[in-house]
Write a structure and sequence with these properties.
four-stranded mixed β-sheet; about 140 residues; alpha/beta; Immunoglobulin-like
């Protein structure tokens, strides 16, 4: 009888511990990584910075500053895209700041696409050909 009581006590305590610990199957809650960058576009057809690196799946905010007198924009496209011919509708993951007038700013928030290298592009005619392209690396 003492063995039965001891066994029942051990089983009851084990059950309480399992319930307290979530039943053995731990749920992981992924925390969203938020990354914010300021990218400046210049009339010399360049972005500053020219390369951004983010974590896979992170929420990315791009604050785009047009420091020139010409209209500029910022979009994200695949690395294989022909940057000379992409338009603002070719942006991945909704990553399109839109056209920003001289001295103005625009902002966009999107989730980083899968791991790889992508291209940041200004799609105003001739700007990408002039060098207004950068790398967006997702690790």
């Amino acid at each position: 009888m003492k063995r039965f009581i001891l066994l029942a006590t051990v089983l009851a305590m084990s059950a309480v511990l399992l319930i307290a610990c979530g039943g053995g199957a731990a749920e992981e809650v992924a925390e969203t990584i938020t990354e914010t960058f300021t990218v400046t576009g210049y009339d010399e057809f360049r972005f500053d910075p020219e390369t951004l690196t983010v974590q896979n799946g992170s929420e990315v905010t791009i604050n785009f500053v047009n420091a020139g007198v010409l209209e500029h924009n910022w979009i994200l496209v695949s690395d294989t895209a022909d940057v000379s011919s992409v338009t603002d509708v070719d942006a991945l993951s909704g990553a399109n700041v839109g056209f920003v007038q001289a001295g103005e700013e625009g902002s966009i928030t999107f989730f980083a696409p899968g791991p790889g290298t992508y291209k940041m592009v200004c799609t105003v005619a001739g700007h990408a050909d002039g060098g207004m392209v950068g790398d967006f690396i997702v690790e």
